[in-house]
Amino acid sequence: MQFNSDVTDFLDSLNHPMREEIDYLRNLFLQSGLGLSENIKWNGPNFMHEGLDRFTMKIHPSTKIQLILHRGAKVLNHPKNRLVEDPTKLMSWKSNDRAVLTFNNKAEIIAQSPELIRICSDWIKASNEHVSR
Q: How far is CA 94 from CA 48, 74, 97, in A?
């Protein structure tokens, strides 16, 4: 899977101090086997599954990278419970269908990569199941 050139061009224009971390996450997602594609949303890289927005990077302020897990921009009925389990406590929950993961450096991303991919896989599955109900 190749990086989306529009996303790359957007990031090139920023000269972001955490570009290495951003590109590491981009590569991790696009090579994960989760079937993700990328574009720009909310002034950051966004990852879609089957055309539905699921994960968006918040890259400002430029001292950390946050990954917003969501079900898209449209207001949907909120689930009664959190969409996924998080025994690692990596996720900061904003609502039962919106959570944030924060990374301060590449070492954190690398160390949490297996768990991050598991969380994202579970998120995609739960998001799709919840929408289809």
A: 20, 16, 8
Task: Using alpha carbons, select from 89, 92, 85 the residue that is nearest to residue 66.
Answer: 92
Q: Is residue 39 pLDDT above 50, yes or no? A: yes
pLDDT of residue 1: 62
Name residue 49's beta-bridge partners: 36, 52
d(CA 120, CA 112): 12
CA distances from 130 to 34, 41, 85, 92 (A): 18, 23, 15, 20
Mean pLDDT of 25-41: 94
Mean pLDDT of 90-100: 88
Altogether, the residues listed in the chain come to a count of 133
